[in-house]
Amino acid sequence: MTIPSQFDAKEVENKWYDYWMKHNYFHSEPDHRKPYTIVIPPPNVTGVLHMGHMLNNTIQDVLIRRARLKGLNACWVPGTDHASIATEAKVVAKLKAEGINKADLTREKFLKHAWEWTDKYGGVILEQLKKLGASCDWERTKFTMDDDMTASVIKSFVDLYNKGYIYRGYRMVNWDPEAKTTLSDEEVNYEERQGKLYHLKYRIEGSDDYIVIATTRPETILGDTAICINPNDERYTHLKGKRAIVPIANRVIPVIFDEYVDMEFGTGCLKVTPAHDVNDKELGERHNLEIIDIFNDDATLNSFGLHYAGKDRFAVRDEIAKELESIGSLEKIEEHINKVGTSERTKAVIEPRLSDQWFLKMEQLVKPAIKAVLETEEVKLYPKRFENTYRHWMENIRDWNISRQLWWGQQIPAYYFGDGKEDFVVAETKEQALDLAKAKTGNVQLTASDLKQDPDALDTWFSSWLWPMAVFGGILDPENEDYKYYYPTNDLVTGPDILFFWVARMIIAGYEYAGEKPFTNVYLTGLVRDKQRRKMSKSLGNSPDPLDLIEKFGADGVRVGLLLSASAGNDILFDEELCNQGKAFSTKIWNAFRLIKGWEVSDIEQPKHSAKAIEWYEAKLQKTLAEIEDHFEKYRISDALMAIYKLVWDDFCSWFLEMIKPGYQQPVDRKTYDKAIEMLEANLKLLHPFMPFLTEEIWQHIAERSPEEALIIAQWPEIKTADEKLIADFDFAAEVISGIRTVRKEKNIAFKDSISLKVINNENIGKDFDSVICKLGNVDGLEYVSEKVNGALTYRVKSNEYFVPVAGAVNVEEEIAKLKQELEYHKGFLKSVQAKLSNEKFVSGAPEKVVANERQKEADAMAKIATIQQSLESLV
After folding, report:
1. How does pLDDT run across 659-680, given as a tens digit for each residue?
2. How far is CA 25 from CA 42, 128, 140, 634, 699, in A?
3. pTM
4. 351, 384, 415 - which closes a domain
5. Which of 56, 408, 732, 749 lies in the 20 to 30 Å Cα band around 494?
């Protein structure tokens, strides 16, 4: 097989991915082996590949490919999430562009459009993942709106309702006026914004007196139903029993007293708008206040907004401020910074709104999940520091608002048969609901047409919290073979931004439905940022297209570039140069392979230096393998890659191949060649999880392989005890060789010119690597002596002294003059450093690091002086 001079990533990637798919290496079925299971965090069906996906899925692929090599039954389940809010918004926008208003459609017609859109655009990201090399079990691909997945969600809802965990309540919720749906507390992001504080005058009924109230939202005065004052505030005791007049609305409202009001904040008076603030709602309930909702579902004002009806809330804010000023009801406006809640999905400013919604009680459900992570550690978070975040959220959890005013999603299985608050039943099917309704009402004449299903859909997260169980049919049929074999899964790789939305909820669901954890380890990746530490985003234009990067650097290069700087939980400062480094690594490995395959092989005796090189590299490989295993165990994926990177680049390519490389136009002995191939194959196995395409290409070039012998299903190298002394002895020899090369470079002694080397072996180092030193230093004789050698340049490795006789190789007189000049320079430098260190003011006043740096300079200068003096003594 002809070996191309260059590695063509594009041609190789398509070839081997097709090969892996053809031979079904990614597919898993239950068998006698131990399973290793990962479920993909399902990307939105609307999504396309971005840098966060690249990082997350590369890590998952590394874990799954390594598991395959280790002989486990690796199963990586892919899929997508229906993403209620995002997808419905896309479909609504598409329909609008076609002149169709969602409000004019029936639910059935809208869903037809939604499914058409999903069939056309959904799942693009899964195809893109294949370009990255993701070895998912594509036969198991799931979508959260698949029939069986939907049935699982409905069954879960009914079960939780029957257990008393789900209830319907009229509560203050977070309203997204753009998506026109409620959001859970976790889907609201709070950000500081520059706003204004409006000081408004409310006239007291029957007098010319007025009180001033500060508000950030003057438009909400149209929904005011009281003014509240702290009963301990002596400034306002004269207002007890009085009533105030709301400006513009001219509505008369009571002045109430409640200790909730902070006397120190603003004017100590609070306008109460029970329909638009959760705290005002509680005040309203305590004081039996009227509730006036002034907003439509798109946050325009309704009929209670008087002449502002139909206008947007923010436009009204400016207009109403002008009107208040014109009628003398605006005292002043101040600049004010306050926290504003925005929708996690649409970024719209949310509105607190009273609404009938479905809620899931969380207080009892969270207890096993708290214990699993924080006490028994059945589930481990990496890095561990995220346990504090997890604890804070779980111990302060509120009931989960699980209903959404959307059509795209699982429709809530509640069926209404009357107008009363309790006139509904909950069931998996309409037929079951009819039976329940007849039993509940005693009316056997009821028909299916008398039942009206709740129009709302369930929160998308209520679907995806079942993901690890539902993908294996565990909710519908907990006794099925797949579920019993693959669940619980092993590792979950995701971002810390969905630790609450998804990870914690999956743990809760796992203990509620399966009585056990859904996974053992959670690897939380960092965010991918640019060099300026900005989060990568389309809006900033600082995020490269991942597919463009793959086109430019190859999938292996991009994977390596991302992972080299991706330690768990720490943000990644992404730079394209990292991918270039990954591409250069690919080239280095390819060229090393070509070098070995280019040697002529002969049945000649193995040189001593080659035998020792093989012995050393086998030990080094074993030591690195142990390090890699430790890194993987602690989910230090970046460190594992770096250990392999150093092993291959430094130890294999730079040292091992140099040690065994035959002389110019000379053959290599067969024993050494076979071992070199064996070591290369071991390297390829370690590299394969990180660089699947390159490694499979080289593996298949080395020899003709059957499908059963492909690298993707090869056997991970066996760990043996590494010979630490052998490794240490080589490290010493490497320093000796570096010393020889330094002397050659500094004294312009060409490498083709052999030299002799003499050594005073004060360290009692063994002679095992002498043959290697001679080869790599082009030393024709290495002699152990007991006294200093005259007429030689010298250097030290620890306490060993090495002498390179230079008679004839260099001009001794010129060398002595040069060394004396060098000696004077270093003595002068040492004197200046010591003068600084003898200054007590400097030593006591300078930072510790600065002083330590000066002491190191002193030690280095003294060592250099000693070496120069030694060389002078040898040359004189």
Report:
1. 999 988 899 999 999 999 999 9
2. 22, 19, 13, 27, 16
3. 0.85
4. 351
5. 408
